[in-house]
Amino acid sequence: MSNFRDAQSQAHPTKTNTLSLGIICVLILILVMQIWLLTSALNESLDGNNAVKWPGFWASISLFLSGAALLRYLPGPIRLSVRKPAREVFRNESLAWRTLAISTVSLALAFAVWFMWSAIPLRLKDAGFHLSRQQLFWLTATPVLLGSLLRIPYGLIVSTFGSRRSFAAVTLAILLPCLATGFAVMNPATPYWVLLVCAAFTGIAGANFATSMGVVNLWFPKQMQGTALGVNGLGNLGVTIAQFTIPAVIGFSIAGLPGSGPIPKALHLENAAFVWVPFILLCAGLIWFGTKDFPTEPKSFASQLVAGKRLHTWVLSSLYFLTFGCFVAMGASLPLIISSVFSDAPGGAPNPWMFAPWAVAVATIMRPVGGWLSDKFGAGLITSIAIGIMAIGGFSLSAFLQPDQFGGFFGVILGICAASGLGNGSVFKIIPQVLPREAGAAIGIVSCIGALGGFAPPLLLGWTMDHLGTPALAYTGMAVFALVCFLVNGWFYHRPNSASHC
User: Fold this and answer.
1) Which domains are seen in the chain, by residue range?
2) In the prediction, which pLDDT does 281 show?
3) 76: left (phi over 0), alpha (psi -120 to 50) or beta
4) What is the largest CA-CA distance in the chain?
5) Could you report the per-residue pLDDT of 67-119, keeping only the tens digit for each?
6) CA within 20 to 30 Å of 482's CA: 192, 253, 393, 496, which one?
7) Residue 297: is it exposed, middle or buried by C-beta count within 10 angstroms (0-12/13-18/19+)?
8) Can you tell me the distance from the alpha carbon of 147 to that of 115, in angstroms, rounded to the nearest whole number?
9) Residue 104, exposed/middle/buried by CB under 10 A (0-12, 13-18, 19+)?
10) What's the CA angle centered on 240, arms 235 and 241, to 5 degrees?
């Protein structure tokens, strides 16, 4: 390989460009063949012909691996050196680590509130509400919308108003959706549009992610930002906390408020929202008294919005759309998928709350691992590995959608979630490296687009379930998108000679 690289670096530019064009054409051909192969195999399987399922799957994997192998032969720009970031001095170390600890706990609480609507819909029928399956999927998907769009201003306020004041304010604000949701679900006569508004309003908790990551990014030097942002990403465990806590607390009264409708006395669905109120007050106090504003000159919104003009902002947004979108989608829709697809499983349907929280937990735990590995081996390499695993897993899911195949299905889900967590950590390592001056604003934009990646899959899954009776087509579409992201990351951040190699 070294001889090939030496010869390539000395090649005439015309020959180098011809080689690049040839390899790119072959890669496009491989991608087209793979999409055609998987689509044909999926159509045959939906028609009841399962004989082509596994041969088509393994042929697709072979095409994917051959395309990945070709990436390393793509020529890089001639006479372009790889830039290595200089090591920075770690000032205020004790305060930085304390800020990270408080931020991680507060972010976990925000995610628990954001995802409480992934647990509530499963018990709405028991509470006397009469909603269709598509309406339930909308309730799980809608919080992602506001939580995504608000991440842009939530990322900007850190550098404008100060890290402590910004984070304390947005943490205290999530009291509002908790109170609104709690009172709304107490009465089964509550109109569906009110539930939908409450679910959407819950999205402000998800926007806390941009503020939290922006705060942590300020306090740590570049050589440690991958690890620090990855550790802060453990706040994603709030999804698992919500999915374990809510089924436990709705069985008894903790608020002391009587219901206003015929909800069974044994079911207190309002607890799913009210249980977080004291912890919100506690975390807001910890932020205000336990952290400080980072010493920097305030920046105007206009000066930070220049990040929207940077190509890397949108490249990284597409990668995070995949990795974080997968995490959000799994957290929001997996319980409904398990209860719908495997309702006729031998021995009875699997309990969604025995399995779904573990998928989110695996993704969360792998996030700091992804950040740490990126600090050690390079974010481009780790992102390629993560996205490659997600693509293979996405194609594999279509082979495990029969009622007696839950074990294989859940095993693949765990693999995909682990890879998504790895990719979440590595992508956030790239942001301050390629966009050092607009990192805060870029984090807001990238996290906004990434969270929107969790809005579409639940709706797509709900549509395919209603119209096709299986989520196979949705999973295949996600896998094809992962292939595209694999190529994009390989070109910008994994190629050794790329100007933005990380």
Assistant:
1) 2-71 (no CATH), 93-494 (1.20.1250.20)
2) 93
3) beta
4) 80
5) 666 666 655 543 334 445 556 666 777 888 888 888 899 988 998 888 788 77
6) 496
7) exposed
8) 11
9) buried
10) 80
